[in-house]
Design brief:
Length: 266
């Protein structure tokens, strides 16, 4: 299960592979039959090692910059700001790992989004604005409460397409999506217009990972049934009074070229 050492293992593997090019950690912590959902990589531990050899040769100064980690059950989510080349803006990346009962990484999903030059809300894509200003999850005993609030908001808003879901948000609602302003006041109208514009929107919630006051929801967003859509991870911070204080996300278009594995991004 993913409790205990799994979050530390996930971060250690990412840093050792991408920053150090240390392939021994793959042999130590990744199953040989590793299941890959990144469309640009084949299944298997050997494929990861080959990928890392090419990656570290191309980006020798890559820094992974892990920002927050949450774990629940056999899943670990790592939200990071990798800088591939010094001086560039880098990417917002969410990695999700599934661990087997022996503590080995058995499966991996990710969502990768380029960090833009500007944001409409003045917040970067990674920091914490709501108090306490920490990237660490709150105490574990509030996990069920946080998960219930965040999934209710998500399902009411995006699955049921009901703009009244904004009742789950605090007035100040701090936003880290670079295209959306802070605050909940204008969101009801924005969502109403969006649902009118895309009446065939389909949002499928795939997996939820919650720890303390942080809840990550991995989903497939499509504007219509024919749309390949986007892989999205939304991360919510839930306050003590049952209102969502803060939101981060990473968004990636599902690519059109044939993937290098048969697993889909979900």
């Amino acid at each position: 299960m993913a409790g205990g050492h799994a979050p530390r293992v996930a971060v250690h593997v990412l840093r050792q592979l991408f920053e150090e090019g240390n392939l021994k950690v793959a042999d130590q912590y990744i199953r040989t039959d590793y299941i890959q959902h990144n469309p640009m990589a084949p299944d298997g531990r050997d494929a990861i090692k080959n990928f890392i050899r090419d990656w570290t040769a191309q980006f020798p100064d890559h820094v992974y910059n892990v920002k927050r980690v949450i774990a629940q059950g056999d899943l670990v989510m790592v939200h990071s700001h990798p800088i591939y080349t010094p001086g560039t803006r880098g990417s917002s990346v969410v990695d999700i790992f599934r661990f087997d009962r022996k503590g080995l990484i058995a499966e991996h999903w990710d969502v990768v989004q380029d960090v833009p030059a500007t944001t409409v809300n003045g917040n970067d894509m990674f920091g914490a604005v709501s108090r306490p200003r920490t990237n660490q999850p709150g105490p574990r005993w509030i996990t069920p409460f946080s998960q219930k609030v965040a999934t209710a908001y998500f399902d009411t808003l995006l699955v049921d397409k009901n703009p009244d879901a904004v009742r789950y948000l605090t007035p100040e609602y701090y936003q880290h999506n670079p295209a959306i302003p802070n605050g909940s006041a204008g969101l009801r109208e924005q969502f109403t217009n969006f649902f009118q514009q895309f009446p065939n929107l389909i949002v499928e919630r795939k997996r939820v990972i919650a720890q303390g006051d942080l809840v990550a929801i991995h989903a497939h967003y499509r504007l219509n049934p024919e749309d390949r859509g986007q892989a999205v991870v939304d991360i919510f911070r839930v306050g003590k009074r049952g209102k969502i204080l803060e939101h981060w996300d990473s968004v990636q278009d599902v690519p059109s070229p044939p993937p290098l594995n048969d697993n889909t991004m979900f």
